[in-house]
Design brief:
It is built from 13 helices and 15 strands. By secondary structure, it is of the alpha+beta class. Helix 3 crosses helix 4, helix 9 packs antiparallel against helix 10 and helix 9 crosses helix 11. The longest helix has 17 residues.
């Protein structure tokens, strides 16, 4: 067997952030924070914004349910933000079409709750009416941030005008995958449908509605998992909607040319978002168990009940039959300083990053197998020479190396021992890097000698 040739990790050309810490725990123990998560539809979800920042910024655990990695989803249109960059506000700026789509979503929710069309129309008209802008213009007053007056807004301050160069005002198109991503995130982020129905009447009276304005229903005291939820989720979200008004640019012209001289006047109108969607952090089962078992900085709830380490080991093994194998490999590589991520994209179990995905490309694609002392056992994915060669070539084309991680358990280890995470103390690990032998390269190297 040839010796492995180790290649240094490839650093990314552009790095837009600084490295904070390998784990979301303080070495001195002064600023220790116990994060909270919940199991929803066999997924581990973190909802508290402060916990999300803690877990992702320190160790790059999880991914945003609406983002590729870091949870940075925003409904604000980047092109509109650049277009209205002179406006001093941090509210999202969206197109009228995008806003109307959310109105239709809110209407569908109310229809499912059995409300008649007349009541739905009145509710939505009252909820989506123009609001006062939460920033001042030209009077030297300080910006008030995300807050927006709940009382009667001043209609004169409800719009910010801007003239367009022509009738074809520039309006950005919505992202091609925005709708599918947002709709896919409704179930894990919205909670129970019954809670939405119980609060439908509150919106008709002008109060927050769980699904229509994005607020969370106030939990009972025993639901300790969500005591740390940010108060921002209990308030409606205000957005600036770019709308158009028609006006005559040349009033002195005769009426025969009046229609030709009409130009569209673009304005930003402050309104409540009728269908707010929150982005949460989704942890893989291996990441969640590592935070609970190895670091002790996460508490996972199922409903109102916090789950113990042994219970999580049992539940995760039922949800994912090969969880024990993949977690042992995850725990091993995390302990060596790597940042493992799901390797499904390349047909493997794990991808290994140095420091984290923002800084380096993945160095290895890992396949984990649990075997006995004689390297025998029921393999999770038996590989033929053809499939192994194809997998290795796929990995090599992505500038990575294929690694087989064998988790060796003693022959005398019983199933009862495997029922708790303490079994990992007797597990040995052997790494095997797979490389493709190229005959022409071998001949050229021999000719040099």
């Amino acid at each position: 067997m040839a010796e492995a040739v180790f290649h240094p990790p490839r650093r990314k050309r552009r790095v837009f952030e600084s490295y904070e810490a390998p784990f979301p725990v303080d070495v001195g123990g002064k600023d220790f924070r116990l994060c909270q998560a919940e199991i929803i539809n066999n997924n581990v979800i973190v909802r508290n914004p402060e916990d999300i920042d803690q877990l992702y910024n320190k160790g790059y655990f999880g991914k945003g349910i609406l983002s590729r990695s870091r949870p940075v989803f925003s409904i604000s249109d980047p092109l509109l933000v650049a277009k209205w960059r002179g406006i001093d506000t941090n509210m999202p700026i969206i197109t009228s079409q995008k806003y109307q789509r959310r109105v239709q979503w809110a209407k569908s929710v109310l229809q499912e709750q059995g409300l008649d069309d007349c009541s739905i129309t009145k509710i939505l008209e009252n909820y989506t009416k123009p609001q006062g802008l939460p920033f001042s213009r030209g009077d030297g007053a300080d910006q008030t941030g995300d807050s927006c007056p709940r009382g009667g807004p001043n209609p004169a301050d409800a719009e910010v005008s801007r003239k367009s160069a022509g009738t074809e005002g520039a309006q950005s198109a919505e992202g091609h995958n925005e709708g599918s991503q947002e709709e896919a995130a409704l179930d894990p982020g919205s909670g129970s449908r019954h809670q939405e129905q119980d609060n439908s009447r509150e919106m008709a009276e002008g109060s927050c509605h769980r699904d229509l304005c994005g607020c969370e229903v106030k939990q009972s005291p025993e639901q300790r998992a969500w005591e740390g939820l940010d108060s921002r989720e209990c308030a409606p979200e205000y957005v600036l909607v770019q709308e158009e008004e028609e006006g005559s640019s040349c009033p002195e012209d005769d009426s025969t040319h009046a229609e030709e001289n009409l130009v569209k006047k673009e304005v930003l109108v402050c309104r409540k978002n009728p269908f707010r969607i929150f982005e949460y952090l989704q942890l893989s089962l291996e990441e969640a168990f590592f935070l609970v078992y190895a670091l002790g900085c996460l508490c996972i709830y199922y409903g109102e009940e916090p789950l113990s380490i042994v219970k999580l080991w049992e539940v995760f093994s039922e949800v994912k039959p090969d969880f024990k194998t993949t977690y042992m490999a995850y725990h091993y590589f995390r302990g060596k300083g790597w940042v493992p991520k799901v390797g499904l994209k390349y047909g493997t179990d794990l991808l290994l990053y140095r420091k984290g995905p923002p800084f380096y490309h993945a160095s290895y694609s890992v396949i984990a197998e649990l075997v006995d002392d004689n390297f025998e056992g029921s393999l999770r994915r038996p590989l033929s020479w053809m499939s192994l060669s194809g997998l290795n070539r796929t990995t090599a084309n992505a500038s990575k190396e294929l690694m087989l991680c064998y988790l060796i358990r003693p022959s005398d280890m019983t199933a009862e021992e495997m029922s708790t995470p303490e079994c990992m103390k007797r597990i040995k690990v052997q790494e095997l890097i797979v490389t493709r032998w190229v005959s022409s390269r071998e001949r050229s190297e021999q000719d040099e000698f």
